[in-house]
Amino acid sequence: xxxxxxxxxxxxxxxxxxxxxxxxxxxxxxxxxxxxxxxxxxxxxxxxxxxxxxxxxxxxxxxxxxxxxxxxxxxxxxxxxxxxxxxxxxxxxxxxxxxxxxxxxxxxxxxxxxxxxxxxxxxxxxxxxxxxxxxxxxxxxxxxxxxxxxxxxxxxxxxxxxxxxxxxxxxxxxxxxxxxxxxxxxxxxxxxxxxxxxxxxxxxxxxxxxxxxxxxxxxxxxxxxxxxxxxxxxxxxxxxxxxxxxxxxxxxxxxxxxxxxxxxxxxxxxxxxxxxxxxxxxxxxxxxxxxxxxxxxxxxxxxxxxxxxxxxxxxxxxxxxxxxxxxxxxxxxxxxxxxx
Length: 340
Description:
InterPro entries: ATP-grasp, CPAse_ATP-bd, PylC_N
Radius of gyration: 21 Å
Keywords: ATP-binding, Nucleotide-binding
Strand order of the largest sheet: 3-2-1-4-5
Low-confidence stretches: 1-6
CATH superfamily of the largest domain: ATP-grasp fold, B domain
Organism: Iamia majanohamensis
CATH class of the largest domain: Alpha Beta
Domain ATP-grasp: 127-298
CATH topology of the largest domain: D-amino Acid Aminotransferase, Chain A, domain 1
Shape: globular
Protein name: ATP-grasp domain-containing protein
Mean pLDDT: 91
Order of helices and strands: EHEEHEHHEHHEEEEEEEEHEEHHEH
Largest sheet: 5 strands, parallel
Structural class: alpha/beta
Number of domains: 3
Strand content: 15-25%
Protein backbone atom coordinates (compact mmCIF):
# COMPACT_ATOMS: atom_id res chain seq x y z
CA UNK A 1 0.00 0.00 0.00
CA UNK A 2 1.57 3.28 -1.09
CA UNK A 3 1.05 6.25 1.18
CA UNK A 4 -0.02 9.60 -0.28
CA UNK A 5 2.61 12.31 -0.39
CA UNK A 6 2.85 14.75 2.51
CA UNK A 7 4.30 18.22 3.02
CA UNK A 8 3.89 19.04 -0.63
CA UNK A 9 5.38 16.74 -3.20
CA UNK A 10 7.71 14.58 -1.14
CA UNK A 11 6.92 11.17 0.42
CA UNK A 12 6.33 10.67 4.14
CA UNK A 13 9.52 10.87 6.18
CA UNK A 14 9.43 8.34 9.04
CA UNK A 15 11.90 7.89 11.91
CA UNK A 16 11.84 4.50 13.67
CA UNK A 17 13.46 3.91 17.07
CA UNK A 18 14.73 0.64 18.51
CA UNK A 19 16.02 -0.49 15.12
CA UNK A 20 17.62 -3.56 16.67
CA UNK A 21 14.29 -5.03 17.72
CA UNK A 22 11.95 -7.25 15.69
CA UNK A 23 9.10 -4.73 15.98
CA UNK A 24 11.13 -1.99 14.27
CA UNK A 25 12.36 -4.38 11.57
CA UNK A 26 8.82 -5.62 10.92
CA UNK A 27 7.52 -2.06 10.62
CA UNK A 28 10.27 -0.94 8.26
CA UNK A 29 9.91 -3.96 6.02
CA UNK A 30 6.14 -3.45 5.81
CA UNK A 31 6.22 0.25 4.86
CA UNK A 32 9.33 0.09 2.66
CA UNK A 33 7.48 0.64 -0.60
CA UNK A 34 10.26 2.53 -2.33
CA UNK A 35 8.45 5.79 -1.64
CA UNK A 36 8.25 6.16 2.15
CA UNK A 37 11.51 7.70 3.37
CA UNK A 38 12.78 5.66 6.32
CA UNK A 39 15.24 6.72 9.00
CA UNK A 40 16.33 4.42 11.83
CA UNK A 41 18.02 4.94 15.20
CA UNK A 42 19.14 2.68 18.03
CA UNK A 43 21.49 2.67 21.01
CA UNK A 44 23.62 -0.06 19.41
CA UNK A 45 25.68 0.27 16.20
CA UNK A 46 25.17 -3.47 15.68
CA UNK A 47 21.37 -3.10 15.49
CA UNK A 48 20.24 -5.03 12.41
CA UNK A 49 17.49 -2.59 11.46
CA UNK A 50 19.96 0.25 11.02
CA UNK A 51 21.20 -1.50 7.91
CA UNK A 52 17.76 -1.67 6.32
CA UNK A 53 17.96 2.05 5.53
CA UNK A 54 20.41 4.21 3.61
CA UNK A 55 23.72 4.88 5.34
CA UNK A 56 22.86 8.57 5.66
CA UNK A 57 19.56 7.69 7.35
CA UNK A 58 20.87 5.83 10.41
CA UNK A 59 22.24 6.97 13.74
CA UNK A 60 22.68 6.34 17.45
CA UNK A 61 20.61 7.82 20.27
CA UNK A 62 20.49 7.49 24.09
CA UNK A 63 18.69 4.68 25.88
CA UNK A 64 14.95 4.81 26.40
CA UNK A 65 15.37 5.60 30.11
CA UNK A 66 17.91 8.37 29.48
CA UNK A 67 16.47 11.88 30.05
CA UNK A 68 18.38 13.07 26.98
CA UNK A 69 16.45 10.74 24.65
CA UNK A 70 13.46 13.03 24.07
CA UNK A 71 15.51 16.21 23.46
CA UNK A 72 17.71 14.29 21.01
CA UNK A 73 14.70 12.90 19.15
CA UNK A 74 12.96 16.29 19.03
CA UNK A 75 16.14 17.82 17.63
CA UNK A 76 16.46 15.06 15.02
CA UNK A 77 12.83 15.38 13.96
CA UNK A 78 13.16 19.14 13.67
CA UNK A 79 16.37 19.09 11.65
CA UNK A 80 15.29 16.23 9.38
CA UNK A 81 11.70 17.34 8.86
CA UNK A 82 10.33 14.03 10.16
CA UNK A 83 6.60 13.56 9.59
CA UNK A 84 6.08 10.56 11.86
CA UNK A 85 8.09 9.19 14.78
CA UNK A 86 7.55 5.49 15.49
CA UNK A 87 8.78 4.41 18.96
CA UNK A 88 9.09 0.63 19.26
CA UNK A 89 10.75 0.18 22.67
CA UNK A 90 8.63 -0.12 25.82
CA UNK A 91 10.83 2.20 27.89
CA UNK A 92 10.55 4.93 25.24
CA UNK A 93 6.78 4.95 24.89
CA UNK A 94 5.72 7.09 27.85
CA UNK A 95 8.57 9.65 27.58
CA UNK A 96 7.92 10.09 23.86
CA UNK A 97 4.13 10.34 24.19
CA UNK A 98 4.51 12.76 27.11
CA UNK A 99 6.45 14.97 24.71
CA UNK A 100 3.88 14.75 21.90
CA UNK A 101 3.32 18.51 21.96
CA UNK A 102 7.05 19.11 21.55
CA UNK A 103 7.12 16.81 18.52
CA UNK A 104 3.97 18.42 17.13
CA UNK A 105 5.62 21.82 17.41
CA UNK A 106 8.30 20.69 14.93
CA UNK A 107 5.74 19.06 12.62
CA UNK A 108 6.14 15.46 13.80
CA UNK A 109 3.29 13.13 14.73
CA UNK A 110 3.90 10.20 17.10
CA UNK A 111 2.54 6.78 16.14
CA UNK A 112 1.31 5.54 19.53
CA UNK A 113 -1.75 5.34 21.74
CA UNK A 114 -2.56 7.89 24.46
CA UNK A 115 -0.65 8.26 27.70
CA UNK A 116 -3.56 6.85 29.69
CA UNK A 117 -3.68 3.77 27.49
CA UNK A 118 0.09 3.26 27.63
CA UNK A 119 0.26 3.68 31.40
CA UNK A 120 -2.49 1.09 31.86
CA UNK A 121 -0.99 -1.44 29.47
CA UNK A 122 2.59 -1.13 30.70
CA UNK A 123 1.54 -1.93 34.28
CA UNK A 124 0.09 -5.45 34.48
CA UNK A 125 -1.63 -4.76 37.81
CA UNK A 126 -3.21 -1.57 36.47
CA UNK A 127 -4.28 -3.53 33.37
CA UNK A 128 -5.90 -6.21 35.53
CA UNK A 129 -7.76 -3.61 37.57
CA UNK A 130 -8.96 -1.85 34.43
CA UNK A 131 -10.24 -5.05 32.81
CA UNK A 132 -11.52 -7.21 35.67
CA UNK A 133 -15.29 -7.58 35.39
CA UNK A 134 -15.27 -6.32 31.79
CA UNK A 135 -13.18 -8.97 30.01
CA UNK A 136 -12.06 -12.45 31.14
CA UNK A 137 -8.89 -12.21 33.26
CA UNK A 138 -6.95 -14.76 35.33
CA UNK A 139 -7.17 -14.62 39.12
CA UNK A 140 -4.49 -12.08 40.01
CA UNK A 141 -3.05 -10.79 43.29
CA UNK A 142 -0.57 -8.06 44.12
CA UNK A 143 2.41 -9.38 46.05
CA UNK A 144 2.54 -7.01 48.99
CA UNK A 145 2.63 -7.31 52.78
CA UNK A 146 -1.14 -7.90 52.96
CA UNK A 147 -1.12 -11.01 50.76
CA UNK A 148 -1.50 -14.35 52.59
CA UNK A 149 0.19 -16.85 50.33
CA UNK A 150 -1.11 -19.81 52.33
CA UNK A 151 -4.68 -18.86 51.43
CA UNK A 152 -4.05 -19.22 47.68
CA UNK A 153 -4.31 -22.28 45.46
CA UNK A 154 -0.94 -23.37 44.04
CA UNK A 155 1.06 -23.45 41.78
CA UNK A 156 1.11 -19.79 40.72
CA UNK A 157 2.89 -17.64 38.13
CA UNK A 158 4.90 -14.71 39.47
CA UNK A 159 5.79 -11.84 37.15
CA UNK A 160 6.90 -8.20 37.38
CA UNK A 161 4.20 -5.55 37.03
CA UNK A 162 6.28 -4.01 34.27
CA UNK A 163 8.57 -5.56 31.69
CA UNK A 164 8.38 -7.62 28.52
CA UNK A 165 9.87 -10.65 26.82
CA UNK A 166 8.90 -13.01 29.70
CA UNK A 167 11.70 -11.58 31.83
CA UNK A 168 11.21 -12.32 35.52
CA UNK A 169 8.30 -14.73 34.91
CA UNK A 170 8.51 -17.90 37.05
CA UNK A 171 6.34 -20.83 38.08
CA UNK A 172 6.12 -21.12 41.87
CA UNK A 173 5.16 -24.40 43.51
CA UNK A 174 3.90 -23.07 46.82
CA UNK A 175 3.93 -20.21 49.36
CA UNK A 176 7.46 -21.12 50.51
CA UNK A 177 8.70 -19.92 47.12
CA UNK A 178 7.63 -16.40 48.09
CA UNK A 179 10.31 -16.21 50.76
CA UNK A 180 12.89 -13.57 49.88
CA UNK A 181 10.79 -12.00 47.15
CA UNK A 182 9.99 -8.29 47.51
CA UNK A 183 6.55 -7.54 48.93
CA UNK A 184 6.59 -3.95 47.74
CA UNK A 185 3.89 -4.36 45.12
CA UNK A 186 6.35 -4.70 42.23
CA UNK A 187 5.26 -8.30 41.52
CA UNK A 188 1.94 -9.97 40.80
CA UNK A 189 0.78 -13.57 41.25
CA UNK A 190 -1.55 -15.18 38.72
CA UNK A 191 -3.31 -18.49 38.40
CA UNK A 192 -1.71 -20.99 36.04
CA UNK A 193 -3.54 -21.18 32.71
CA UNK A 194 -2.90 -24.62 31.17
CA UNK A 195 -3.99 -24.00 27.58
CA UNK A 196 -2.64 -22.48 24.39
CA UNK A 197 -1.31 -18.92 24.34
CA UNK A 198 -2.31 -16.64 21.47
CA UNK A 199 -1.51 -13.11 20.38
CA UNK A 200 -4.21 -10.82 19.05
CA UNK A 201 -2.85 -8.08 16.82
CA UNK A 202 -5.22 -5.13 17.09
CA UNK A 203 -5.43 -2.06 14.86
CA UNK A 204 -7.52 0.87 16.06
CA UNK A 205 -7.78 4.27 14.42
CA UNK A 206 -7.09 7.53 16.24
CA UNK A 207 -10.84 7.87 16.81
CA UNK A 208 -10.83 4.59 18.76
CA UNK A 209 -12.63 2.52 16.11
CA UNK A 210 -11.15 -0.98 15.94
CA UNK A 211 -10.44 -1.75 12.30
CA UNK A 212 -9.44 -5.37 12.75
CA UNK A 213 -8.24 -8.04 15.16
CA UNK A 214 -5.91 -10.75 13.83
CA UNK A 215 -5.41 -13.68 16.25
CA UNK A 216 -2.33 -15.80 15.79
CA UNK A 217 -0.96 -18.86 17.55
CA UNK A 218 2.50 -18.91 19.12
CA UNK A 219 3.59 -22.43 18.19
CA UNK A 220 7.25 -21.81 19.00
CA UNK A 221 8.63 -18.90 21.01
CA UNK A 222 12.23 -17.74 21.37
CA UNK A 223 13.08 -14.91 23.81
CA UNK A 224 9.44 -13.87 23.91
CA UNK A 225 9.11 -13.67 20.12
CA UNK A 226 7.05 -16.15 18.11
CA UNK A 227 9.21 -17.88 15.52
CA UNK A 228 6.45 -20.20 14.30
CA UNK A 229 2.70 -19.72 14.27
CA UNK A 230 -0.40 -19.18 12.21
CA UNK A 231 -3.23 -16.69 12.06
CA UNK A 232 -6.69 -18.04 12.92
CA UNK A 233 -10.21 -16.78 12.29
CA UNK A 234 -12.16 -16.97 15.56
CA UNK A 235 -15.15 -14.71 16.32
CA UNK A 236 -14.70 -15.14 20.08
CA UNK A 237 -11.09 -14.00 19.94
CA UNK A 238 -12.05 -11.12 17.66
CA UNK A 239 -14.65 -10.00 20.21
CA UNK A 240 -12.15 -10.34 23.08
CA UNK A 241 -9.55 -8.25 21.28
CA UNK A 242 -12.09 -5.52 20.56
CA UNK A 243 -13.32 -5.51 24.15
CA UNK A 244 -9.78 -5.14 25.52
CA UNK A 245 -8.95 -2.38 23.03
CA UNK A 246 -12.08 -0.45 24.02
CA UNK A 247 -11.42 -0.94 27.73
CA UNK A 248 -7.86 0.39 27.67
CA UNK A 249 -8.33 2.95 24.89
CA UNK A 250 -6.08 1.60 22.15
CA UNK A 251 -5.79 4.10 19.27
CA UNK A 252 -2.96 2.57 17.26
CA UNK A 253 -1.43 -0.90 16.90
CA UNK A 254 -1.30 -3.14 19.96
CA UNK A 255 -0.69 -6.78 20.77
CA UNK A 256 -3.12 -8.46 23.17
CA UNK A 257 -1.83 -11.70 24.67
CA UNK A 258 -4.32 -14.28 25.93
CA UNK A 259 -4.16 -17.87 27.16
CA UNK A 260 -6.69 -20.64 27.40
CA UNK A 261 -7.98 -21.58 30.85
CA UNK A 262 -9.07 -25.03 32.03
CA UNK A 263 -12.67 -24.25 31.08
CA UNK A 264 -11.65 -23.63 27.45
CA UNK A 265 -12.16 -19.87 27.57
CA UNK A 266 -9.37 -17.37 27.00
CA UNK A 267 -8.07 -15.00 29.66
CA UNK A 268 -6.18 -11.74 29.17
CA UNK A 269 -2.49 -11.95 30.07
CA UNK A 270 -1.12 -8.59 28.98
CA UNK A 271 -1.27 -5.87 26.34
CA UNK A 272 1.82 -4.68 24.52
CA UNK A 273 0.77 -1.18 23.36
CA UNK A 274 3.12 -1.08 20.41
CA UNK A 275 3.97 -2.88 17.20
CA UNK A 276 4.65 -6.58 17.87
CA UNK A 277 7.71 -8.42 16.61
CA UNK A 278 5.66 -11.05 14.80
CA UNK A 279 3.79 -8.47 12.69
CA UNK A 280 5.10 -10.02 9.40
CA UNK A 281 2.63 -12.90 9.84
CA UNK A 282 -0.29 -10.49 10.19
CA UNK A 283 0.89 -8.55 7.13
CA UNK A 284 1.24 -11.77 5.14
CA UNK A 285 -2.32 -12.66 6.14
CA UNK A 286 -3.57 -9.55 4.36
CA UNK A 287 -3.60 -6.84 7.04
CA UNK A 288 -0.73 -4.38 6.61
CA UNK A 289 -1.12 -2.83 10.06
CA UNK A 290 2.09 -0.76 9.91
CA UNK A 291 1.06 0.98 6.69
CA UNK A 292 -2.54 1.43 7.81
CA UNK A 293 -1.44 2.88 11.16
CA UNK A 294 0.98 5.19 9.39
CA UNK A 295 -1.77 6.36 7.01
CA UNK A 296 -4.07 7.02 9.97
CA UNK A 297 -1.55 9.11 11.90
CA UNK A 298 -0.93 11.13 8.72
CA UNK A 299 -4.65 11.88 8.50
CA UNK A 300 -5.49 9.67 5.52
CA UNK A 301 -8.68 7.57 5.44
CA UNK A 302 -8.53 4.05 6.85
CA UNK A 303 -11.37 1.60 6.20
CA UNK A 304 -13.77 0.60 8.96
CA UNK A 305 -12.86 -3.05 8.51
CA UNK A 306 -10.02 -5.03 6.95
CA UNK A 307 -10.30 -8.82 6.71
CA UNK A 308 -7.56 -11.44 6.57
CA UNK A 309 -6.80 -14.90 5.26
CA UNK A 310 -5.23 -17.40 7.71
CA UNK A 311 -1.56 -18.08 6.99
CA UNK A 312 1.24 -19.99 8.69
CA UNK A 313 4.79 -18.77 9.36
CA UNK A 314 8.17 -20.24 10.22
CA UNK A 315 10.99 -17.75 10.76
CA UNK A 316 14.61 -18.14 9.75
CA UNK A 317 17.81 -16.13 9.96
CA UNK A 318 18.61 -13.51 7.34
CA UNK A 319 21.73 -11.46 6.68
CA UNK A 320 22.62 -7.97 5.48
CA UNK A 321 26.01 -7.56 3.83
CA UNK A 322 27.78 -4.22 3.47
CA UNK A 323 31.28 -2.73 3.13
CA UNK A 324 33.36 -2.78 6.31
CA UNK A 325 33.88 0.98 6.03
CA UNK A 326 30.14 1.61 6.07
CA UNK A 327 29.69 -0.62 9.11
CA UNK A 328 32.52 1.08 11.00
CA UNK A 329 31.11 4.49 10.15
CA UNK A 330 27.80 3.64 11.79
CA UNK A 331 29.56 2.93 15.07
CA UNK A 332 31.22 6.30 14.84
CA UNK A 333 27.98 8.26 14.54
CA UNK A 334 27.86 10.52 17.60
CA UNK A 335 24.78 11.13 19.70
CA UNK A 336 23.53 14.57 18.62
CA UNK A 337 24.20 17.30 21.14
CA UNK A 338 21.20 18.55 23.07
CA UNK A 339 20.67 22.28 22.69
CA UNK A 340 20.91 24.02 26.05
